[in-house]
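ok here's the first one, seq then struct tokens
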Amino acid sequence: MSHICLMIILISRTMKLLCSTFFLVIFLADNIKAQVMMKDLPISQDLYVSQLTTRIKGDYHRYLVKSMKPRHSKQSNYKEHRRIVMEEFTARHKLLAEKNASSAVSVKFPMYMGSDLGIFDYLVDIELGTPPQKVKLIVDTGSDLTWMNCTFMKNLTVNNDENEVVKPFNAEQSSSFKTITCESKMCSEQLSTLFSLTDCPAPVDPCTYQYSYYNDVLSIMGKFGKEKIYLPMTNGTQATLLNVVGCTDTLLGTAVKGGDGVLGMGFNMQSFGYRAALKLGRGKFSYCLVDSLSSQNVTNYLIFGERSKEDTMIVGKMRHTELILGIVADLYALFFKGISLGETMLDIPSEVWEVDEEAGTIIDTGSSLTFLYRPIYDAVTTALVKALSSHLEQVTSDSQSLEYCFNSTGFHESMVPRLVFHFDDGARFKPHVKGYVIDYKNDVKCIGFLPTEDRQSMIGNILQQNYLWEYDLFRGRLGFAPSTCI
């Protein structure tokens, strides 16, 4: 087997918007016999290491700015808060969802890895506007705003050092694109969570937004509007959804290579994922991340509604755990009680798993590596280092963030005890070894976790790969099962 390596490329977003990218060559799940397409890396070793270092810095920034997002009021009892949130959510939307959706029909977007396009994230092709225009959007459960490179009342401005060619959505050619005025309550209140600007030169001017990215790597500015988005149904028909979108007309810095923007999937009333799940998915959406080496023609699906057995073959039964909504801002949070390595439960203080508006563990397709709150990180890495050191030589990494690296000559996954995340309700998530012992460069593997002093941990898409994930908003639960996703 040819050398397995990792590419992480920088695509950041401010506050709650960051598209993270990750490229991991061949990922074979335990007990899953599958043939996965392989190909040589399209970049040099030096470029790969440079991109990895930059990506890690981007992930750190994403983590820090997420802790700055607007919070709900402090709750001493998260279960009581969750009960209130779920009652309000269900009462407001369940009847509407049942009226608009048939259990036999779902929304089904092919979802693929963007490596062929020079972007190492998961994308879907979306048609929007009248007449329809196609855009490629990165699927992100960690952000709310759906935005795309766009022109409206001005040409698209891209200012960077890479001479990137950006294909914009032309809002002026769409008869269904309607701006939201800056004097409106929607701009000043409802869109404040999407970082609308307060400036309003004239009442009829469009509501605008601006994201300032870390170290001035990227700033994005644009106008809010409402636009018709087309939804492919499993019965061969097409539905439409009128949704708030961001028409990004100014990019300063590195643009989103190969992609046209982001599909916001967060738990927010303006999020595409939230609205599509309620209108046509009976409160559900699901995805299965194919191997990150896969070419663009290897797909699984982003589905709103029920998923058929033919769409995704799973190994064993679907497991379920509580999905905590409306407490850790608009993120999808999980309640863990511990982590084991092999047969040993790690010594982690129980209080680090507490969930409130400033703490908890979230699941996020828009982040590559997994962040662990420092006490968790220390316990996990100490145990992994001990296990790996008995087989491999520890080496000094030139990465400023990945602390523990090893000479991977002679490495085999059997050397690594299996890591298991234990949920408070008894469910267990067993990520694949290549999700947490990752290839850094030739003959070097590193433990793929990053520490944070913030109390909010984050499960990135590396650990999610080759698993089916189903979000049930009405029941407040998350289903998961291992799968080849092909």
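and now the second one, same deal
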Amino acid sequence: MGLEDLGDLALNSIISKLDAKDSVAVSCVSKKLSVSASEESLWINHCYQDLGLSAPIDPLGNPAPSFKEESPSDVQPPEHAYLFCAEICQGAPWTVLHMHIYKETYHLWRESFHMYPWPLVKRVKRCWDGLKNWLSANFPEAEATLRRGATEVDIENLENILKVKLPLPTRLLYRFFDGQELTGGVGGTTLGSSLGIIGGYSFYDHFVNVYLLPLHQVILETKEIKDHLGFSATSKNVIVAASSTCIGKFFFLNCTTGQLCVGTKNLVSNGEMIPCVPNALINPMHDLNNGQQQDAMLLWLEEHVRRLQNGIIKLRMDGMTRSINLFPEEPPFCSTAITNGVQVRASAVFVPECCSVRNTSRQYLFAYSIRMRLLPEGCIVNGISFGSCQLNRRHWIICANDHVVDEVNGEAVIGKFPLLYPGGEGFVYESCSDLASSQGSIEGAFTFVPGREIARNLSCGKEGKMRKKQGLADPKGSAFEVEVARFPLQRPDYIF
């Protein structure tokens, strides 16, 4: 018994397990198989599985054109099926008339990207879909800055001007979205825009927020920095991402090796850069017959999306401004400790733009963020509940390669004595530490003083007045130590 001898239900069940390429191959066999392989439900599934499409839209985001559905007796399978099969197998342009809307949608996508390996197209689209979905749900104002995808003409124009050949994965990334358009005053601060989809960090007066450059800005920035730094005219580095703030942080894609590097503090003086992705993960980028290409740009963006989706990095609200905050929020790179009702979370980021790889004494700089708050049950010391507590002192133990290299004791944190209330917003501050080693840690404790004892019968008005008197000037209990659990200082495999 052959496939054609099966009933329609059994035949459709078998064909539904095929991928798009095999579905087309089956449709070349006979008229009956062509009809079964053209079922709308089959191509709805292919569009969703391969492209993540839940609606028939073309690569530009427009509704795909609808085609008149013909009866099986009008279909001419050999001609149109073989044309479709030829496109799937060889990547050549093709024309098919009279097909269902989802099959036509799939055709439009294949036709638009016929010059690229199809597995790579699907992978790049999944990456962008993951980022767009996260932005849409959490940070729509940043999603609005994404530019419409570049054309092949746009990409070739950049390549001709800068005399480079972009790796295939990066070309595809730009085909879907041409970077970000950060307009003046939108989501900005006095230091720059906060809408970069890569995000950043701040400590003291150092504020970084990284965004993806559109192609026209890639050209301008690359030409300017090559002239300024005296790069060779044959250099294959192009700037693809940078901080929108006054802090100089630039990411360079090497179009020959596919590596992404970030400039250090010595970028201007000697062109020093640090790789952002493990070299071992980068595959050849210019082979059209190989669907396994992955340059550092694609790997970097995929890792960033993974961190966003898993809650490793999150949004931070600073006044009225929101931004993607690169300080980790999950272990093992974020520590959490609770002592007497005071919770302290701590994590650090590597700051490449302030590092000096050739300076053996203080090569690496790390910024760290401390988030402290008093839990709703209040401060509990020796079984007594207090309605507030105030930080008085800090004690840090700083290690490099498991050896103590510094110990700090002092009053306050960044010159402040934060006062915590139950369930309040808490207090966040950032600072930094430099090491001669690429790996270390910080741990320690804060000394807190409890404020007034909780008075359950006080009205809100009296409570408000009493809050002004408490803290260091009016302690109601003995000072106590609040643990800051060890958190790592580490040069990571992926640098953002």
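notes on #2: Residues 235 and 473 are 63 Å apart (CA to CA). Confidence is low (pLDDT under 50) at residues 67-98, 185-190, 455-470.
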